[in-house]
Each structure stands twice: as structure tokens, then as C-alpha cells.
Amino acid sequence: IPASTRWLVSKGRTKEAEKILRKAAKVNKVELPDELFDKDCLEKEPRVKIWEMFTSPVLVIRSLILFFNWAVISMVYYGLNLYISNLSGNIYINFTISNIVEFLGYCSVLLFAGRIGRKPILCSGMVVGGAACVLSIFPVLYGNSGE
């Protein structure tokens, strides 16, 4: 994997960045201008203020959705991880199963993100996870206590 072109440009290594961009353009069959990085472009550092993100209604809506989504995912993740010790059975086996499922989830995202896309993976993960959490109430309500 080549180095990040933004990082290379920020470190003043424009020749290496241009080489990587030209290789990517060749693979994608795109024509690039002869001079990619001129001195005027490299010397100016654009300064953007954080509140400029909220000037467009589309950016506001998308940002709020992402903030809410991050908060919900974090709370559910930590809530489920903290509840593992309260599940019946061996705590070590429960923890191991939880780690295996989490590892498989990370690997599946790495495998399928490029093929399917991030949005379908996120949406399907949220739906499947929510359904699993809702369905987990039925063994509690209708299962026998085993006593």
C-alpha cells in the first residue's frame, strides 16, 4: 500500500506523491495535468473553521445522523460488553464467544466493504444487531428457569 499522498505533500515530498497519483491515474485511465503541484497551491494552507460545517443543511443533517449513530453504537457496544459477566454459564466461555464474534465482524467488514460498500454493511449490521437485541427478550420471557 503506498503512502498517503496528503501526508507526503504535507511533509514536502511532492515528487513521491505525484508518482503515486500518476500511477493511480494510469490504473483508472484518467489524464492528469503536467504540473500537479504548483508552488502557489502548496504554500497556501486553507484554514476552515468547525462551525462552517453547519452552514449547509445537508451537512447539518448528515452530521447529526453520524453523531447520533456514533453515540448509539458506542452505548450498545459497551452495554453488551459489560453485560457479558451477567450471562448464565461460564464467564470465560461467554467472553471468548463474544471476542470471536467481534473478530469475525471486523474481518467481514474488511472483506466486504470494498465489494458491497460501507452503507449497506452499516445498515444491515444495525438491523441485524437490533433484531438480535430485541429477540433476546424471548428466552427470558418464555424460557423455563431450569430449576
Features:
147 residues; mainly alpha; 7 helices
**Rg calculated over all Cα atoms:** 24 Å
Shape: elongated
User: Which structural class matches the secondary elements?
Assistant: mainly alpha
Instruction: Please state the oligomeric state of the protein chains shown.
Output: single chain
State mean pLDDT (0 to 100 scale): 84
How many β-strand stretches? 0
If helices are DSSP runs of H or I spanning 4 or more residues, what is the number of helices?
Answer: 7
User: What is the strand content?
Assistant: under 5%
Q: Alpha-carbon distance between the termini?
A: 58 Å
Order of helices and strands: HHHHHHH
Poorly predicted segments? none
Helix content: 55-70%
Please, could you describe this protein's structure?
This protein is mostly helical and 147 residues long. It has a domain at 5-42. It is built from seven helices and no strands. It has helices spanning 5-10, 14-27, 39-43, 57-83, 91-112, 118-135, 137-142. The N and C termini lie far apart (58 Å). 1% of the residues are buried. The mean pLDDT is 84. The chain crosses the membrane at residues 59-80, 92-114, 121-142. It is a multi-pass membrane protein. Keywords: Membrane, Transmembrane, Transmembrane helix.
